[in-house]
From TrEMBL:
Ranges where the F-box domain occurs: 1-42
One Pfam family this sequence matches: F-box-like
TM helices/strands, residue ranges: none
CDD domains registered for this protein in UniProt: F-box_FBXO15
Organism, scientific name: Cathartes aura
Protein name (Swiss-Prot/TrEMBL): F-box only protein 15
Length: 437
């Protein structure tokens, strides 16, 4: 019942975020909050006009301020859109400046963490039940590594697993990032769909990666770990592992319903010869369990000869059983740490593996971050230097496979990597280079 003129006067004192929020109340407020006069005032205070508009009046010339002229012949909401677009462009410029320097070992931007903070980027999961109701989980702990970020959600009020149908992972950015204060979840935000997972028959359709006295862990591709309470078979926590490669694009450039598709690689002129195979590749490997890092290393000068191409894969040997000088010890006992509001734990024999494979130009070729687990092999160690149990870790996706062998030395209580081989899909190599292996 309040007159529109009075509401407009009140709205004129609001900042941009509050004005966008009040426009969501109803249609009447939306139209009033689109007023060009209010938004031009906000726009001008943030972005000073760089020119004036000249008009001729009889024999004299006068300057008309951009603010006055800009109100004419503009549709409602024009200056709101201009302000938002310019703010988004300013944030993109700031982020691009941060991600420009590249780490020569990982081939990835050096300041990913700073870039994410500058953009106000965060991540949420949305659980949808069979009735269509959505449950948004905001609270999350972040753990940054050399090439990935691990996100852990836990809560005391997870919806019942039996009624859930899907889980969606979103990147979330404030529409108008404010560097002086933390982003508010009640302010205007944009969602970008990163991945969608189906939760129907979770324990049957996903891969069991380990358990302790309280929880069981199940892995969903790509890079999601769901922890279930053993007794109740209900969600205890959800952990996502996201590789830095294209992380900002996937978390910001997609829509709320469609995932961002990575652009195809443009082949460059090179001396790549299918008869010769791949050469001068580099691998950065990170093995961690949340807070603990077990291995972080770079392997250079990897190659694949023609004889190493078989069954649709090209083989890159990183660590060989035969060369004991390259066998690597791990720091600590492998395990994945988890926590909730009340309990903490560590599931042994599973961890997060970050793989960053660079081509001969130093460009990221195959990258992933995913939870994996170790299996005790039935074979005993045949190596003279290592007398102990052999464990294997295998990972596979549409682009390649990783096969890892470790030996547990009981005397020194440590693991040694004695064999590490990457298998790259020939289809991926052909698409990358525009050739035919």
């Amino acid at each position: 019942s309040m007159p529109s003129e009075m509401l407009m006067k009140i709205f004129s004192y609001l900042d941009a975020v509050s004005l966008l929020s009040v426009g969501c109340v109803n249609k009447h407020f939306y139209h009033l909050a689109n007023d060009n006069g209010i938004w031009l005032k906000i726009y001008s205070s943030c972005f000073q006009p760089k020119r004036t508009i000249w008009k001729m009046k009889s024999e004299q010339t006068e300057t008309v301020s951009l603010g006055c002229a800009a109100l004419h012949d503009r549709r409602p909401g024009y200056w709101k859109k201009e302000y938002i677009f310019k703010q988004i462009a300013a944030v993109k410029t700031r982020v691009m400046r941060l991600v420009k320097p590249v780490d020569p070992y990982t081939g990835l931007p050096c300041k990913n963490k700073e870039a994410m903070k500058a953009s106000g980027l965060s991540w949420i999961i949305v659980l949808k039940d069979k009735n269509g109701k959505e449950h948004v989980m905001e609270k999350a702990n972040l753990s940054f590594k050399d090439t990935s970020v691990t996100i852990l959600w836990y809560s005391t009020n997870w919806p019942c697993l039996d009624i859930l149908s899907t889980l969606k992972l979103f990147g979330v950015m404030p529409l108008l990032p404010d560097q002086s204060r933390a982003p508010s979840k009640n302010g205007p935000r944009r969602r970008s769909l990163i991945a969608e997972y189906h939760l129907a028959n979770l324990t049957e359709s996903s891969v069991a990666v380990g358990a302790d006295k309280l929880v069981q862990l199940f892995s969903l591709n790509p890079g999601l770990l769901v922890g279930l309470w053993k007794e109740k078979n209900e969600i205890a926590f959800v952990m996502a592992s996201l590789h830095y490669h294209q992380l900002l694009e996937r978390s910001t450039l997609g829509s709320a319903t469609v995932q961002y598709a990575l652009p195809p690689n443009k082949p460059v002129l090179d001396d790549v010869d299918p008869e010769y195979g791949l050469h001068d590749y580099s691998l950065h490997l990170d093995m961690h369990g949340g807070s603990c890092t077990y291995l972080c290393g770079t392997f250079k000068s990897l190659f694949c000869r023609k004889g190493d191409i078989a069954n649709g894969y090209l083989r890159l040997t990183v660590v060989s059983l035969k060369d004991s000088t390259k066998h690597l010890p791990l720091i600590g006992t492998l395990g994945l740490s988890w926590e909730t509001d009340v309990f903490k734990g560590n599931v042994k024999d599973c961890y997060v593996m970050d793989v960053t494979l660079l081509d001969e130009t130093g460009k990221p070729f195959w990258c992933f971050s995913a939870p994996v687990y170790m299996e005790l092999s039935s074979e005993a160690s045949s190596l003279y230097d290592y007398m102990g149990h052999i464990y294997t870790t295998d990972y596979a996706d549409s682009e390649g496979k990783v096969c890892l062998e470790l030996v547990w030395l009981k005397e020194t209580k440590e693991y040694f990597i004695v064999n590490l081989v990457l298998y790259i899909s020939t289809k991926k190599v052909n698409n990358w280079y525009g050739t035919n292996y």
